[in-house]
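Notes to self after the Tuesday call (sharing in case useful).
The group wants a holo model before anyone commits to mutagenesis around the pocket. I volunteered. Ligand is zinc ion. Logging inputs and output together so the record is complete.
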Amino acid sequence: MRKCDLCGFNEAVYTDHSKGVSVCADCLMKSVRRRAWQVLKGELIAGDKVMIAHSGGKDSSLALLLTKEFADAHPDMKLSLLSVTVDEGTFYRKASVKLAERLANELGVRHRTYTMEEIHGLSIEELDFRLPVNWKRSPCTYCGVLRRQALNAIAREIGATVVVTGHNLDDLVQTAAMNLSRGDINALVKTLRHERKMEEGLVPRVRPLKMVYEREVATLVVAKKIPAHLGKCPFTQGMRIGVRREIDDLEDRIPGTKVKALQTFSLISHGLSSDVQLRRCRVCGEPTTAEVCKACQFKKELSTFLHRDLVRPLNLEKVRKDRDLWD
Ligand SMILES: [Zn+2]
Ligand SMILES: [Zn+2]
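Result:
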């Protein structure tokens, strides 16, 4: 058994190759908590109504846990927390919705689940079933856009002032690299720049795990037995998989690459200005940079396969009734 290099007492469960240091679960938790709290301290404002986008997966579960600990440790900030799951209606999600409820209950955080079916009028399972073989887009592409829009609309209508997401360092470096390889400067700026203003119905986001490796998250969730779904979504497809592999390769050869890359991308994006103005979608009224938002464009495309008209404003009736949930 290798002992932890920091406390010299517990068994080491994680090795930071960039520093050549092996640590135990307790010391890893301390280090991850310090990084997450630094983000929360810098980006949350006293009195915030914080909605945690909680899928029940490992990242958002750890983000919820650390945000709850932060709120408890800073009572003067008077933060209200609410955990929200969007159920896309896949067999994969069923297990994680239960785990999301369980963790929220254990932590004493209120939890709500809304289904993609009630909000957008379709489930990803139905989509997977109806899409023609070899169709140009995978269910994953539709799901990503529809889920993101649903989460923002829920946050706004339920009265959240900020949304906490589980995006980790690996996710952000992958997204930034994809933006860069597409030459999409606006998306790069949007991904990395931190702005705390509600603009055209877009609720600001905070990512407490942005300086935490995915491997650290996975190690902690297992070692600390945090209720969370560890499986990968079976629908994950497309460019991200290749980009992830390349960046992981680079990190293996040059430990610390991901941290340096994110810091560099962030610095670059702060020096850039995005010339894209947010506005409201002509069809559904949700925030977008185009005249008609991507979700509406996708829903129009999908109406053919699902044999019904899906293009309409989101159904947020149930969400609006939950506005008084905040403590
Ligand atoms: Zn230790
Ligand atoms: Zn729209």
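Two things stood out.
Residues 29 and 220 are 7 Å apart (CA to CA).
Residues 281, 283-284, 286, 292-293, 295-296 surround zinc ion (ligand 2) (CB under 6 Å).
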